């Protein structure tokens, strides 16, 4: 009899840094998941806070070592883009690691205010304000600048954005300009809809900024939608962007920073490989090389890592409610949740997460499809990133099987919605925050119970 554990051990180098088996149950970052299930039940989402700080420190260390290796004359700053996960406990944990913040919309700014009121940040923090800005967003940015948040930098996304700040900000202030990158050759559009096209940047600076005593161009920003990878496309976009920095720097002495956005990937399979150290060194080397060729001082460097910051801290756990065989070949395990409402990246973006059973690793396995509770035909999961099929243990008679999706800590609530009404009125699962005390003891906190019908009735106007 081939056990599920035999399949995993033969296919992967297991255990890994993130997963191991103890007392017959799966552990995630050392957290015994069966204990979580026994205490809180399913469906549930968990956030393991210590991994957030660990990833931040890892990135800061890699960039610091690369700067030292290449004797790079510039500093590195780590920004967290709040859109990846807006939860207070995520921001509070990330801010313990001497980071800065990137915002995307008007209601990011009240979060900034609340963090300041609670002493989590001070007015010296760097706040990079991205996005195509409606009036309220511009108003909130202006109020931050007027209230002494001197390192708040509105990043212009279009050529019509600046006049509002010029009119309403009382003192001289810094700005950035987002450059519109070319999309990946596989994308159906050629140029990003976000940012200012390359051909307009220098002319805009000469006409609007060069002799403007109130506004100082501090930073250029780019984001390559594909993310940071070792491809000719990425290095071409990065080098083209640095060339623009060099061209502007010659006529703009206040420009001293580039923001290369985010894009560090996270594990979506136990086979995942990505040489972070090599990529970081190549980024530093490429920037320095282009600047040397143009006889230009190297800029300070910012990144905006969101998914990398928080993604691998999260997991979503389900019970298998029952088994259905719909034909001679297809076996369905029905879960007590929904992929469409709770893990929308799966059906909306065809994204894969690491999927593993929590228990019954000593049982034989079979090929299955996982089905969600909504009536939508797309509410299923049947392929892994490393394989075209899903295998899970056979369920012993009168026993429960629990299944986990891992590294789900970024974007799922932001994309699928949180606390509102979703497809087929499937409730939001309970959310457990897990931390570790100084002596290594795990602590569990129920952040939010499973959504109840009363909360949905209020949203729908039935109260």
List keywords for this structure.
463 residues; alpha/beta; TIM Barrel; 10-stranded mixed β-sheet; 8-stranded parallel β-barrel
Task: Explain what the structure shows.
There is one protein chain. This protein is α/β, with parallel strands linked by helices. It has two domains: 4-49 and 314-460, Lyase, Ornithine Decarboxylase, Chain A, domain 1; 72-305, TIM Barrel (Alpha-Beta Barrel), CATH 3.20.20. It has 15 helices and 21 strands. It has helices at 4-11, 33-40, 50-69, 88-95, 108-117, 135-146, 162-168, 198-209, 232-249, 276-293, 307-310, 339-342, 344-348, 412-416, 453-460; strands at 19-22, 25-28, 31-32, 44-48, 76-81, 100-103, 127-129, 152-156, 173-178, 215-221, 257-259, 300-304, 314-325, 331-335, 354-357, 365-371, 380-381, 390-393, 402-406, 430-436, 442-448. The strands form three sheets. Strands 4, 13, 14, 15, 16, 17, 18, 19, 20 and 21 form a ten-stranded mixed sheet that branches. Strand 1 (19-22) and strand 2 (25-28) form a beta hairpin. The longest helix is centred in the first third of the chain and has 20 residues, at 50-69. The mean pLDDT is 93.
């Amino acid at each position: 009899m081939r056990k599920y554990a035999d399949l995993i051990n033969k296919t992967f180098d297991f255990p890994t840094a993130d997963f191991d088996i103890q007392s017959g149950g799966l552990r995630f970052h050392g957290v015994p998941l069966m204990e979580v299930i026994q205490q809180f039940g399913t469906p549930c989402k968990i956030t393991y806070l210590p991994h957030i700080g660990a990833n931040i420190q890892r990135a800061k260390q890699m960039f610091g070592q690369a700067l030292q290796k290449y004797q790079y004359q510039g500093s590195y700053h780590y920004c967290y883009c709040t859109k990846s996960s807006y939860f207070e406990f995520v921001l509070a944990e990330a801010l313990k690691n001497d980071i800065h913040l990137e915002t995307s919309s008007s209601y990011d700014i009240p979060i900034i205010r609340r963090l300041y009121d609670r002493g989590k940040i001070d007015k010296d923090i760097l706040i990079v304000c991205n996005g195509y800005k409606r009036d309220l967003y511009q108003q909130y940015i202006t109020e931050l600048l007027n209230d002494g948040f001197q390192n708040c930098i509105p990043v212009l996304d279009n050529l019509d954005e600046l006049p509002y700040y010029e009119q309403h900000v009382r003192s001289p202030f810094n700005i950035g300009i987002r450059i519109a990158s070319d999309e990946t050759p596989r994308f159906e559009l050629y140029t990003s809809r976000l940012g200012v096209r390359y051909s307009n940047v220098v002319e805009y600076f000469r006409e609007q900024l060069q002799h403007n005593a109130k506004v100082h161009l501090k930073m250029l920003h780019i984001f390559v939608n594909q993310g940071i990878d070792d491809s000719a496309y990425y290095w071409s976009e990065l080098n083209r962007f640095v060339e623009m920095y060099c061209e502007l720097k010659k006529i703009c002495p206040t420009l001293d920073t580039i923001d290369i956005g985010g894009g560090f990937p996270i594990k979506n399979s136990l086979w995942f490989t990505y040489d972070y150290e090599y990529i970081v060194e190549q980024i530093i080397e490429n920037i320095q090389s282009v600047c040397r060729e143009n006889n230009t001082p190297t800029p300070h460097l910012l990144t905006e890592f969101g998914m990398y910051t928080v993604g691998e801290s999260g997991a979503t756990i389900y019970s298998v409610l029952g088994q259905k065989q719909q034909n001679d070949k297809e076996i369905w395990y029905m879960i007590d949740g929904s992929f469409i409402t709770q893990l929308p990246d799966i059906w909306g973006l065809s994204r894969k997460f690491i999927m593993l059973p929590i228990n019954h690793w000593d049982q034989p396995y079979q090929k299955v499809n996982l089905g969600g509770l909504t009536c939508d035909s797309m509410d299923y999961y049947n392929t892994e990133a490393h394989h075209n099929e899903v295998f899970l243990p056979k369920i012993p008679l009168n026993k429960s099987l629990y299944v986990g999706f891992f590294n789900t800590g970024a974007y799922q609530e932001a994309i699928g919605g949180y606390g509102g009404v979703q497809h087929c009125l499937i409730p939001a699962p309970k959310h457990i925050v897990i931390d570790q005390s100084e002596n290594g003891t795990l602590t569990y906190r129920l952040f939010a119970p499973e959504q109840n019908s009363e909360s949905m009735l209020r949203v729908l106007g039935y109260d």
